[in-house]
Amino acid sequence: LAASGHSSKLAASGKKSICMAANVGCTAKAAEDGAIALAWWNEKETRYRITVGYFGEDGIKADVWYRLDEAGKFEEVA
Hints:
By secondary structure, the protein is mostly beta strands. It has no helices and eight strands. The strands form three sheets. The protein has a four-stranded mixed sheet with strand order 1-3-5-6, with no helix packed on it. A hairpin with a 4-residue loop joins strand 5 and strand 6 (47-54).
């Protein structure tokens, strides 16, 4: 599952699924054993970066909405 629109909202519900949003301001969630990848703007480097989160690593949980902060770190969306 992929999207490139600004502030897209993606949800992949199948086990081992992957969500990829290739623009800033997007949110995503995936099911068990899945992964999410979100783009962000690195002001210091003046370029886009992509951060990948894997279910079960670094606190990433299944079926929880995430976005990236200004440093490219995942944060839960309330």
